[in-house]
Amino acid sequence: MFRILLADDEGIMLESLKNIITSNFGSNCEIRCVKTGRAVVEQAESFHPDIAFVDIHMPGLSGIQAIQEIRKFDKEMVVIIITAYDKFKYAQEAVNLGVMEYLTKPIANRNVILDACRRAMRQVEEARQRRDTDLKIREKLEIVRPIIESGFIYSLIQDEGDVYQHGYKEILGVSEDSGFCVVFEMGDSEEAGVMTNAVGAGVRASRRYSMIVETIKDYFSCIVGPLMGNRVVIFVPTQEQKNDYERRVEVLTRTRNLVHQLEDAVDSRFRGGIGSVMPIGEARESYREALKALRESGSHIAHIADIPAVREYDGEYPLDLENEYYKRGLAADAAGTTACANELFDWMAERYSDYRADIEIKVLELVMQLEYRAFFNGGVKYGFRYRENYIREIQTADNLEELRRWFVGKTRDICEHLVSGKKRESENLVEQVKTYIDRNFQKDLSLDEVSRMVNISPYYFSKLFKQGTGENFIEYLTRVRMEHARRLLEDPDASIKQVCVMSGYGDPNYFSRLFKKYEGVTPSEYRERFLNG
Q1: Contact at 8 Å (CB) between 56 and 85?
Q2: What does the radius of gyration of the chain's CA atoms come to, in whole angstroms?
């Protein structure tokens, strides 16, 4: 069914349009007729037409003005203008308003009207189909959304890297770049800061998990994680970049009200810990803070900023820049990390040039902390006596610029060691696999078997092997077998079948086809050519 609005101040024209459309499309159309621009707008609001034939010149609002008003609340109505004024200005305005067709009177051929109507109907059908497809996609997304949200929270807790890499932000429709975590914990009662009967409370909560999620989302526009024992972790996206006092109080109040609501619904006691606002890529730190607030506050609801042990750096220390230094360092971004190192040193030198000992301590802390993190990230060795000269080297630096060079140089060394260490590890693994293939190519080797041997997943192994050799696993294995087959074929005492088996193939026909693909000749032709010189 198509709802069609006809608008013209000439009754004859209205009747003519109505008869043409009705006689061809019959019961597929519901038609209404109006004679003023104001009536066009009113019908658009109440009748919601799919298609509108509108005359430009009508009493009161013109057709163009009426369409302008309609476009404020309806962007999809298909408009066809019919007018006796063939002026460029009108046509230009019509284009700007998304009008599908601009027809000039008199229209001698009724097929012009019918063709325009058919195109409009197709456009309406396509729009309906898109809406239907979008609705189905949204319905499917809502079904899997809890799984995706759980993946986001697991990624956050397990520190699996920047959550942007997993595509969660885009899939979940999160436009904000920052957010904070809240950890809810439940039990029968609280004793010395610990919830009792955590298992029983978790079982009760599991039966009403869907209701818990709905209740939480009534209070926060957030991502809700799965029930993990007697805990639920949520992440609340926000555009805020810092922890404003008024906002903090508002979040505390809302969390307190939410906890009371959950306690009534689940018949358990709830506690809540709230972390500070962080960039999404650093949200795990907010999760840690929420746990700290939960454990150390001794309060029903607590924000990390209210914990006495939490203090901010004096002098507006650029903590974000320090975090960027570590982040770029672990990514082995030597240029980016050294740039951060220089900025950090500039900040210290500009403000505390008279406090050399403090600068030395901070520089040493930054380098050693980056080394420590790099060690756990892989690729950097870490030993008890590796840094025995650090203090002496720092203290014997003649001036701040020499101290800066030491700091930047050590920073660059760590990044380079990360790259070379990972490269060495990858190269050693590839060489190990190549040696294994060279010695066992006669066997029925598979990617799964070889990746299991080196204890790496097939996907990651395949990627490393291609990076290390320039060939994928099958290409390399086939090349090794073909090289061996050529050497065997140069021995006239070995039959083609024997060469086939000794090269790692069970089917002589397949072996012959593969050999010809690589060498351009069959095994027999290759042997004959070799023996005949």
Answers
A1: yes
A2: 36
Give the helix, strand, coil percentages of the chain, each rounded to 5. Answer: 60, 10, 25
In the chain, % of residues over pLDDT 90:
34
For the cut 60, the answer to whether the pLDDT of residue 421 exceeds it is no
- Residues in the chain, overall count: 533
Return the H-helix or E-strand segment holding 46: helix 37-46
2-129 placed in CATH 3.40.50.2300: yes
Residue 71: strand, helix, or coil: coil
Q: How confident is the model at residue 43 (pLDDT cuts 50, 70, 90)?
A: very high
- 296-338 pLDDT per residue, tens: 766 788 898 887 654 455 557 888 888 889 888 888 888 999 9
Q: Name the CATH superfamily for 441-531.
A: Homeodomain-like (1.10.10.60)
Task: Show the tokens assigned to 337.
Answer: 């990390």
Find the mean pLDDT for residues 223-251. Answer: 87
Question: If residue 101 lies in a helix (H) or strand (E), which one and from where to where?
Answer: strand 101-104
Domain over 174-306 is classified CATH 3.40.50.2000: no
Longest dimension (CA), the chain: 104
Residue 73: both structure tokens together? 């609340």
pLDDT value, residue 144? 80
Do residues 280 and 236 lie in contact, with contact meaning Cβ atoms separated by under 8 Å? Answer: no
Residue 503 CB partners (closer than 8 Å, separation 6+): 441, 442, 481, 482, 484, 485, 488, 511
Over residues 202-216, the pLDDT tens digits come to: 888 888 898 999 999
In the three-class reduction of DSSP (H, G, I as helix; E, B as strand; rest coil), residue 476 is classed as helix
Q: Are 455 and 461 in contact (CB under 8 A)?
A: no
Q: Whole-angstrom Cα distance, residue 308 to residue 293?
A: 10
Against a cut of 0.70, is the pTM above it? Answer: no
